Sequence to fold (112 residues):
Amino acid sequence: MSEQKLVYVCEGGDCSEKGSGDLHDNLKEMLQAKDPSEEKVRVRRYPCFGGCECGINVTVWPDRLFYSEVTEADLPEIVDQLVADGPAVERLCNKVQPDVEEMVWSLLDSPY
Ligand code: FES
Fold:
C-alpha cells in the first residue's frame, strides 16, 4: 500500500481572495467520494506558503508537488493524481521560487 498523502490548501489572505476556501471544500468533497475513510489522502488547510502571488497554492506531501495558480477546473486531475496515483499535473508546478518550495518541504518534512 502506498504512503498516505497529505494535501495542504493555502488559506492565507491572497489565496483566500482567489477562492481557496471553496476550493478546499470542493477538493475535500471530491476526495471523500473516492476515498471515504481518508486511507490514501487527507486534506488540510495551511496558513501561507510564502508564494502568495502564485496562488491558489496547493501542496502534496510526501510527493513534493507544489501546485500553483490552481482553479476548480484543475481539481479532477489533481484528485486523479492523488487517489489513483496518476501523473503529476505538470502545468501547475514550478511557478514559485525554488527557495520558497524548499522552505515548505523542510517544514513539512519535519516530524514536529
Ligand atoms: S496566501 Fe497563499 S501562499 Fe501566501
Notes: Residues 10, 12-15, 48-52, 55, 57 surround FE2/S2 (inorganic) cluster (CB under 6 Å). The chain is about 35% helix and 15% strand. The first helix runs from residue 13 to 17.
